[in-house]
Structures are given as C-alpha cells and as structure tokens.
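WARN no homologs supplied; continuing
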Amino acid sequence: MSVTEWAEHVGRWSVVVMWAALIVRARPAWKESHQRGLWFAILTAASATTLFQPEVVDWAVDVTGDSGAVTLSRNVVGVLAAGLMLLFVVDSAHPRRARLVIASALSAAVVLLLVMDLARGDYSGPLIPPTGGPPEPSTAYWLVVCVTHLIADAVVVVLCVRYGARTCDRDLAWSLRLFALGSVLALAYWAGHLIHLYVRIPDALPWLAVIINVHGACRALTLLVPTATGAARIVQQARLVWALWPLWRDLSAAVPTVVLAPPRPTRLRQLLGLRGSLALQGHRQTIEIYDAVLPLQAHLAPDAYDRAAERARELGVPAGDVAAAALAGALGQAWRAKLAGEAAGEPRSLPGLGGADAALLLAVARHWAVMSRALPSPEPVP
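OK structure emitted
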C-alpha cells in the first residue's frame, strides 16, 4: 500500500470516528453547557476533515460543478475550525475581551480569504502546485491560511499543557492531552504546507495527509473521554458483581435474612436481571456479604483461620494471597457448619474483615471455589 492510499484509508476511518463521536456525545453536550463549545469545535473540525477526503471532494465537484468553490469552502471551514478550537480553550479561563479579539481576528481572516479569492477572478480554485508554478490565487492567500492555523494551534497547545498540569480532574486532564496532541499534529501539517509554499516538497504531501487525518482521530477521542470513562466504570462494576456472586450466593444461603432479594440462579442472569444499577448491585452484594459474616463468626472453629492459612500454603497460594485464601477457608468452614446445623458458639473475629472493603472481598472471592472446602466438613447435626 502506498503512502497516498494509506493516507486515504486513515482519512476515511478518521472521519467515521469523528462523526460517530459527535453523534454519541450530542445529547450530553446539549445537556451540559461546558461540553457544548467542545462539541461545536469538533463539529467544524469534522466538517473540515470530511471536505479533505478525495471521495467527498469528487462528489462535491460533481454536485456543484465548481472545484474552486469546493476548495475555498474547505479552507474557510478549516480556518473556522481552528478559531473555534481556540475559542473553546480560552472560553472559561480568559476575559471577554480576549474572546472578542479572537473572534474579530477569525472573522477578518475569513473575509480576507473570500476577498482574495474573488479578486483573482475566474480560475480553477485555491492550489499550491506540487512541483512548481505560483500558488493560486496568491501566496498571500495561503499565508493567511497557514499562519491562522499555526497561531491558533500553537496557542491551543500552550494553554492545554498549562491547564492539564493544573487540573486534578482525570477526565479533563486526558481531554486536554488529546486536544494538545491533535493541535501538535495540526501544527506539523500546516508548518509542512508553509514550507511547501516556498520550497516544493511533493514527496512529503502524502505524509502530511496522514498527519491531518490522525489529527482528526485525536479530536474525536477528546470528545469521547467521558464516554470511555463511563464505559470503564461500568466494566469495573460488572466485574465486581460477577466476581462476588459465588461468595454472595453461598453466604446468603446460610444467612438468608441479610439479603434484600435472593441471588438469581446464575451469574449471567444476575447481571442481565438487575433491579437497579450495577453500582447499586455491587454495593449491595458487598454489604450483604459483610452482614452474613457477622453471624457466621459464631460458627468458626477455634483454629480455622490458622489451619486454612497452612492449607493455602500447601496448595501453593502465593505469599501475598495467603491471608485472603485463609479468610476464604475459614469462612467456608463456618458457612458449612451453619448449613450443617451446628449450634452457634462464641463469636471469633476474622482478621481484616472489620470494614466493608470490596477489594478484600474480591481477593477472598478469587480463592472461594478452592478454599471454601479446604478444611474438613463438619458432621451434620441429626
């Protein structure tokens, strides 16, 4: 695959990702005003990137019959996108005067491009020839395009790096980093075109196309950071529910009074048949396991924990996991004693189970299948 074909392939995927991100984040953006500016900035960037795709250019030329208008529109939308990116970054941290200056400079650049295009008269459209000849409509036109992008992207990089170093919000920090990365790629692209304006470098043009298309993907990922964080949180909550289910099912069978609703027959049905959110289900399972531990401690054998720890070492449990495995073994002994009908004795506390620690329960649950029956079973009470 040639560099040109690769650039076109990356460009198609970049456009798909950008528009998909805009669709996914449209509703949250309209609900939360602080995300609206970013959404509109990415919308203009997606429009500009879309207009750079060969298939879109060919289609637009077929529809309008004017290749010059298509190229001019692409440049104008690109300049608008760069300006809106800058306005988004300075919106909340700079005074209104700074935003007015940026908006005025952006408007002036757009008007200047239109005037220079009209002044050229009838021609085939803005173009920097790959190998020679004067740029169309003029060198000044392309200077305005390149310099506007370079200034806007350079300021965005500086501000994003500065704000990213100050914030304690993880989502915001990642958004700013990706935004800065996209602007760095845009800087490289327009710096390359500025050099090409004076020293023709046709072999570099396909690589510049790859850079600007990757830049589009970075912009899309900026918009998707909250979605990715939410998805990661859901996966983590589902993992907690899934991992705790066997331990929760067995202990609640021995102490059914601690559960609000009995466990479903399988893990999958438990996940698919939730009556509330995953977070609520995971919290409920954690609390109900700890509630079940309290009465089960009255069924612990005097040396259950120590014997379970010794058994865990015999089974080759890593040293760092022996404590959790011993808890699983001791709880397993108490659980089976309760189910066998043994009378409760004096409660014996288990080390480390003094608070509702989900991480500890996850460690215990990892060893539950093996260690719950590692100690001898009690004799059933007649």
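The chain is about 75% helix and 0% strand.
OK
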